[in-house]
Every structure is written in C-alpha cells, then in structure tokens.
Amino acid sequence: MNTNYWSWDRLTEAFPFVLEGIGMTIAVTFATFLFALIFGFVWLFLRRIPNRSLNWFVTWIMEFIRSTPPLVQLFFLYFAWPVIPYVGVTLSAFTCAVVGLGIHFSTYIGEIYRSGIESVEKGQWEAATALNFSIRDKWLKIILPQAIPPTIPMLGNYFIILFKEVPITSTIGVQGILYMANTFGARNWAYIEALTIVGLILLALSYPSALCIRKLEVKMNTRFNNNANKKTNKGVTSQ
Amino acid sequence: MNPIMDIAPQLARGLSITLTILVASALFAYLMAFIAGLCSLSKNILIRKITGLYVEIFRGTSLIVQLFWLVYAIPILFGLSLASNWVIGVMAIGLNYGAYLSEVVRSSILAVAPGQFEAAIALNMSSFQRMRLVIFPQAVRMMLPEFGNYTIQMLKGTALVSLIGLNDVLYFGNILRSSNLSYGPLIYIMVLVFYFILALPLIFLTRKAEKVAKKGVASS
Predict the structure, then answer these.
(1) Each residue of A115-133: pLDDT tens digit?
(2) Which of A65, A189, A200, B69 is least crowded, fewest Cβ atoms below 10 Å from its Cβ?
(3) Of all residues in chain B, what percent are helix, strand and coil, respectively (each to 5)?
(4) How far apart are CA B124 and CA A102, in angstroms?
(5) pLDDT band at A224 (very low <50, low <70, confident <90, very high)
(6) What is the ipTM of this complex?
(7) Domains identified in chain B and CATH numbers
(8) Which residues form the domain of A127?
C-alpha cells in the first residue's frame, strides 16, 4: 500500500485524533516550566556562594547540561536511570519529561535570574546598606522589585522555546500531539497530514504568544531602560 | 575489561555522521541566514513578506516536527529517490536555524549606528559599497556571539537525526544500550560527554566572539 500523496480527507480525519494530544502537550509545558522556574533558583543560589572552586564547578555543570542534547538527557532518565543501583527508580514518561526538560531549561532560567539581579545598579545596593535596611528588606523592597520585571519577557521567550521543545518527549512515550500524529501515521501508513496538523497547532499557539512577548518587551524596555537584556547575552540564546 | 574503553570506540563510529551533519547544516543555516536576513531588509514588500513567512513558519514550529515532516513531504513533493535522510537532516536543521539566525543578521545590520550609514552616503559610496565596506564588517562582528550560540544549539539538534535512522553518536548509544541494559547509565553519560567534547570548542569560540564583538563597532 503506497500512500505517498496528500489527501484532504485524511487531513480532516487526522485533525480530531491529533488534537487529543494537545492537553498533554500543554500540561507537560506548564509542569516543566514550573519545575524549571523553581530549579533555576537552585543554580542561582549555588552560583552566589562565595567560593571560587565551587563557583567554577557549578558553572561547568550548567554548561554541560546546557550544551548537550535534551533528547539524550531524556533517554538517560527514561531508559538508564531505573537500572542505577540504590537510587534508580522507574519514572513515568511524564515525570521524565518534566524533570529532564525542566533541568535542561533551568540552566537558562538560572542565568536569567542572575542577569536580573545584576541589572540592579550598584548604587541601589549601596543605598540599601546606607539606609540600614535588613537583608530581608533589602531584597524584598529594593532589589527584587527592580530585578524581576525586566526578566519577565525573557522568561516568556523561554516558555515559548520550551513549548516547541516539548514534542521531543514523544520519543519516550509522552502522549502529546506529536505522539498522536505518529500513532495516526502508523495506523494509516500516512504521516504527512497528521504531521502538518502538529505543525499548524504549534504555529497557532506559539506565534501569537511570541507577538505578545515582543509587545511586552518593548513596554519593559521603555520602562526599565533594560539593563538586564544587555548583560544577559552570555550563554543565553535569545530567540 | 574497562567498560569505558569498550563503549568509547563503539560511540565514536557515529562521530562522522554527527560531525558531517553539523558542518553541513551549519553552513546551510549561515547561508540561509544571510539570504533571509538581507531579504528581510529589502525595499520590495513582496520579498519581505515571503521572507517573513519562511522565518515565522520555521521559528514557530519545532525542529523535530520539521524533520519528520520533511522526511514524508520531500518524497511527495520531489519524488522518492531525490533525498537521502542525511540530506533531509541537513535541510531541516539548516532551514530551522537559518530562520533564527536571519533575525540575528537583520538586527545586527540595523544595530550599526546610523551615522556610519550617513557617512558612507556622504562619501558618495554606492549602496553595494556601503553594505560591503562599512555596514557589513561591523554588523558581522556583532553577529558572531549569537552565531556561536546557535551553532551549539545546532549540535544539540543533530541528536534528533538518530530518530530518522541516521547512524550518529546517539544511534550507536541506543544500539549499545539495547544489548547491555545494565550499562545504560554509563552509555548515555558517555554519549553526553561526546556531545560536550564536540561543544567545547564552540563554547570557547563563542566566548572569544563576545570579546571580538565589542571591539571596533559603532553600534547604536
């Protein structure tokens, strides 16, 4: 049976089938992003410990995670983690996706947090000390209110990048849109229509969000004069 | 026997595919980036719209979806025998990152200070001379760090070609793991180390590029 042709009938047939995966794709995206937001703080705190060799070590661990393929990291967690003695437990595909992609993206998120904090001018830190603010007040009233807003568009960008990376979790069996499309393809011996739908769904969700983020970026740039963006270039790909 | 010594040569068999895919797709992506980046600055609205469509489609969807899509679409569009999976892998990665990099090219050219442009006009340079002698040399410097970053992203992207049956490092890792399940953790860590070793020169080049980018450029 040769189905090397485009069929509109199959397209309409594939659409509801592929759409069944959208809930899972979105759930994985949100869960992973939340995980990355929290884990980003771990990197931030580790980097702020004033110990040079620890700092060097953490920087290279982050670099390692960031510059190796997330696909291999997922395979490691899903296929290899269970056979590690003592700590190895079998993880569900969903957990692997959230933890694997979450850790991968947390290295970027941690870098964004750092750039946000570093974007607060030195005078602000000195002023907080001069005014005898407690550490708590210094962070809550001076530093964080200025550090957080400029990072929001950058975090938004990474949310979209993450959303587009989530389909790779279909390789370990997370039943998102790409998984459904491949299932449909295998049943009908025709993949092209279902994959086109996956592309269109991704585009329909990511393009409007990207436009919103761009608007937000412009707004933030005028408000905060955007020190954070200038300093964040290192190792962070802005897309 | 030392298992590391057994595994490494097995994985190294995939290096040629990973490296050739990386080099070919990076060159293709750079080419697409300059074509699309310059086209997006064109005065012709039709060229701008077509370029915009290309950039938004490839930036708005995932590499893995584009890869699978091209595997099935190319035989339909151009006939079965035309493209091997190697070519399709290079096309997918090149087109995807070409779209991202075209934005880098575009924004870098726009970031050259307008005074430079005006000075070139005042010196009676033709529009081609302006671009070649004044704007471009400065814009390219500014592009370098992002080109480095995206090349690392491309290296990460090459791992996906194992999914369309190409025998890259990850492919041999998967094969090895399926025959020695208990060595799975070691095998995948070594696959990661292989990719990291390939990424190291790119990381250092990117860092160097960040320094170069700041010198001798009048940016606005």
Answers:
(1) 999 889 899 999 999 999 9
(2) A189
(3) 85, 0, 15
(4) 55
(5) low
(6) 0.90
(7) 3-214 (1.10.3720.10)
(8) 8-231
